[in-house]
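Box 3.1 A note on notation
Throughout this textbook, protein chains are presented in two layers. The first layer is the amino acid sequence; the second is a C-alpha cell string describing backbone geometry. Keep the layers aligned when reading.
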Amino acid sequence: MGVRDILLYPDPALKAVAAPVQAEEAERVAEDVVETMRSRERCVGLAAPQIGEAVRLVAVDVTDHPKAETQSGLLILANPRIVESEGSEVGREGCLSIPDLTANVRRATRIVVEHTAGTVECMGFEARCVQHEIDHLDGVLFLDRVESLAHDVFRRKSYASSARPGGGPEARDAPSSSSERAASNDSASGPTGT
C-alpha cells in the first residue's frame, strides 16, 4: 500500500493493545510503516498502530541524528519486548499522532530489546525512540508518561525553518512517532518525535 495516513488522537485505535504480528503479514506491514515514516520530515520512528495496523511492529532509524549515541541503522522490530533497562533521563518527545504538543518524558537510557529476529541494545536517544514506539503497541501515548500535565506539556513550535531539505530519515522527528531528530525551539535539547 505504501505511504499511509497517520491516525490522530483521540482515535481509539491508538489506545488499544496490539496483537502479535504474524510472519505472513510482517513484511507488508513493515514496508508500509517504513515508507510512511520516511515520508514525514524529522520522523525517526513509527509504530504499526499509528497507521491503523493493530499489530506489534515498530520501525526506528536515528541514523545521523545529532542526539544519537548509538545508531543501529533501520530497526524493524516485530513483537518487541524490553528485557533489560537501566538509567533514567527526562527528554522532550513529540508524536505524529499528537502533532500539536511535545512533553518532557522520563525514559531509561539503556535498553535491550528482544524481537522476532533477535536482540538489540540501544542507548540514549535511540533507546528513547524505541521505548516511545513500543509504548504505542500497548496503547500508551507519550502524554500518559508525563509527570505533570501543567508543567511538562508544551505547544509544538513550527519546524518549517529548521527542517532539512529532502525530508526522509533526517530530516525526521524523533519520537514524532513518531520520533524527532532536529533540535527545535521548544527547549534547549529539542523534542524527540515519533
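Residues 160-190 have pLDDT under 50 and may be disordered. The longest strand covers residues 98-107.
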